[in-house]
Specification:
Blueprint: H1 7-14, E1 20-26, E2 35-42, H2 68-80, E3 82-90, H3 92-98, H4 100-113, E4 121-125, E5 136-140, H5 143-146, H6 148-171, H7 177-180, H8 186-195, H9 206-227
Parallel strand pairs: 1-4, 4-5
Antiparallel strand pairs: 1-2, 2-3
Helix pairs in contact: 2-6, 3-4
Length: 229
């Protein structure tokens, strides 16, 4: 298992930057719910040069490689040992309006804007930088597995999004959001085929569109059939 390091942030401190942040988004692939991003400014005084089991950040890594219980423990530590963090949420309606890529970028922008103090250097996971900001940015492919601040952001974003999907499960329990968090699992796809598309599904996504067309075709057929009897 690969663990991120703090050497990228340390290099920026050596270059004279004071507040170095990491940003990441989660929830790009699911068929339902929002995309969520987080930005984190870790406290450099709480992070030593070497990773060891007695360090709070020992297990911090990309949220995709952690389980739900571990994320809950890690997010508490991250929030305790960061100078600031911000969360950005973009709804499924906006995803359908502007596309998932733009929605992910908007969520990251919102997470930066929600910080109480703006960074002077920002690491982002992926290929693209954010617009509207004057501070220096660096987009890093697979940054969530390389850079500690981005990994920490991915965990905060993942936990925040999971909580949203748990709330959606209370409203739309037929779909099992509490279990799969909106991802296109076999269980979720089967529920969509059985119950149709809910108000929180992403109608711009191909599988959801197919379900919509299927239900529309069935209703048209049923209406024509009733008209003949």
């Amino acid at each position: 298992m690969h663990f991120p390091t703090y050497k990228h942030e340390a290099q920026k401190f050596a270059e004279g930057f004071r507040l170095v942040a990491g940003c990441d988004e989660v929830g790009m692939a699911p068929l339902a719910g929002p995309v969520v991003a987080a930005t984190v400014i870790l406290d450099p005084d709480s992070i030593g040069k070497q990773r060891s089991k007695n360090k709070w950040w020992y297990r911090v890594r990309d949220s995709k490689t952690t389980n739900e219980k571990e994320r809950q423990d890690l997010v508490a530590c991250i929030k305790d040992y960061c100078l600031d963090f911000g969360i950005g949420v973009v709804s499924h309606e906006t995803i359908d309006e502007i596309n998932i890529h733009q929605a992910g970028m908007l969520a990251m922008q919102k997470s930066v804007e929600s910080l109480k103090q703006q960074p002077d250097y920002l690491f982002l996971d992926g290929l693209n930088k954010l617009k509207r900001f004057e501070f220096v940015q660096e987009a890093v492919v697979d940054g969530d597995v390389k850079i500690l601040s981005i990994s920490a952001a991915s965990i905060i974003a993942k936990v925040a999004r999971d909580e949203i999907l748990k709330e959606l499960h209370e409203q739309f329990s037929n779909y099992g959001f509490v279990k799969h968090k909106g991802y296109g699992t076999r269980e979720h796809r089967a529920a969509l085929k059985k119950f149709g598309v809910s108000p929180v599904h992403r109608t711009s996504f191909t599988f959801v569109q197919q379900v919509l067309k299927s239900f529309c075709s069935f209703r048209n057929f049923h209406r024509l059939y009733l008209a003949t009897i």
